[in-house]
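Request from the bench team (R.T.):
"We need a structural guess for the complex before ordering more zinc ion. Sequence and SMILES attached. Just send the C-alpha cells back."

Command: build protein-zinc ion structure.
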Amino acid sequence: MPKIYLLDVTNRDGVQTAKLGLSKLEKTLINIYLNEMGVFQSEFGFPTTRHETLYLQANLDLAEMGVLHPIRLEGWLRAIASDVETAFKLVPNLRHLNLSISTSDQMINGKFQGRKKRDDIINDMVEAVDAARSLGAKTIGVNAEDASRTDLDFLIKFGLAAKEHGADRLRYCDTLGYDNPFTIYEANRALAENIGIAIEQHCHGDLGMAVANSIAGAKGAIDGGQDAYINTTVNGIGERAGNADLVAVILALTKSKRFAEKYQLAGSIDLSKAWKIAKFASYAFGVPIPINQPGVGANAFAHESGIHADGVLKDPENYELYGFEELGRGEPEFVETGREIIAGQYSGISGFSHVMGQIEVSFANREEANEVLELVRYANVESHKPLVEDELLFIAKYPKIAKKLLTLAPLE
Ligand SMILES: [Zn+2]
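Reply to R.T.: structure attached below.
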C-alpha cells in the first residue's frame, strides 16, 4: 500500500514569504526539530542563492555527522539546466532536489510573454532533470507551478517526460489555492494513474482549504496507486494566506474520521514535538500563533461555557478530539519576571558565562568561552532578538558548524 510522506517547506516557501524571514541558525533549528519530529524531508533552501551556500553546506555537514538524520534535505531551484549546474557548483554534496517550472497557459503566456510554448517548458524541464542526474542527484522532484490551472492532458505529458528522464516525484502545485478537495482528488488520482510516479501535494490557503486539499490530494494519489508527499510549513507560514500547516496536516491525517484506516503516514511521527516546533517558529518569524490554531493555539484546549466545562471535566473526550499531552503541551513554562541577563551582540564574558551557566553549559577554559561568545554575538546580529536556549546549546555544541552558518560574507 502506498504511503503518505511529509515534506516540509518552511525553509523555502515559509522564508520567501513577504515581510518574513529566518536567520540561518533559525533555519537550522527548524531542520533539527523537523528531524526530531520524524518528518521525512525538509526543503531546506535555495542552492543557487549565494547567501544560502554556507548554510546549506553546514546543514549537509550536520547530516553527515548524523545530527540531521534520517531527515532528507532537499534544495529547491528553477528547472533550468544552468541553475542546476550553479547549484552543484555552490553546494557539491547536494543530493535531493526539486526543480520548478510554470506549466499553466496563464503563466506560460503571462510570464514568458510568447518566448516559450508548452513544448519549451517540457524541454527546459527534461534538460534540468538530465543535468541533475548527471551531477549526482539521488532523488528529483519536478514541480509543476500552477498545476491546478494547467490542462490535465498537458500535465500528464509533462509528468511522463519527467519520469522518462528519471524524476522520482511530480509536485502538483496549487500555487494560488484555487482547488477544492474534490477537484484536487480527481487531478491527483488521474496523475498517479496515468504517470505512475509519486505525487506531491503543494497547497495554499487562499480559499481556506490548504489542509483539506492536501489530504484529499494525497488520497487521490494513493487511490491512483502511488505514494503521496504532502508539503507543509510550520504554523502554515507561506506565501499570501499561507501553506498547509504541519501540525494540522498530521492531526487531519491521524485523527479525522476513518482517514487513517486506509491512508497512512510513512515512518513514525512524534506529535509530542508539535508544541516546541510551533512555539519556536512563532518566535523566530515573529508571528504569534492564532488563538484558535489547531492543536497549538491558546484556545485549543480551553473551555469556559458551562456545558462544555462540565462535560470536559467529566470526560475530556466529550469535547476534545485529542489530548494536549499528545502535542507536547502541559508542562509549565518558566518566564523570568525579575532581573534578566541576556546574551547578545554586545555581551561580555561575565554576563555570557552567567547565561550559559543557567542552562548548565560550562567551558573548559576562558578561550573556549570567548570563542562561543563571539559566535553568539554574530548569531544575535543576524536574528536581532535574544537567542533561545536551543540556539545557545547548538552553538556551544557545534561551534565549527555555527561559524559556517554565521559566515555571511558575499562569496566570489
Ligand atoms: Zn508555494
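Two things stood out. The longest strand covers residues 72-78. The CA atoms of residues 254 and 261 lie 9 Å apart.
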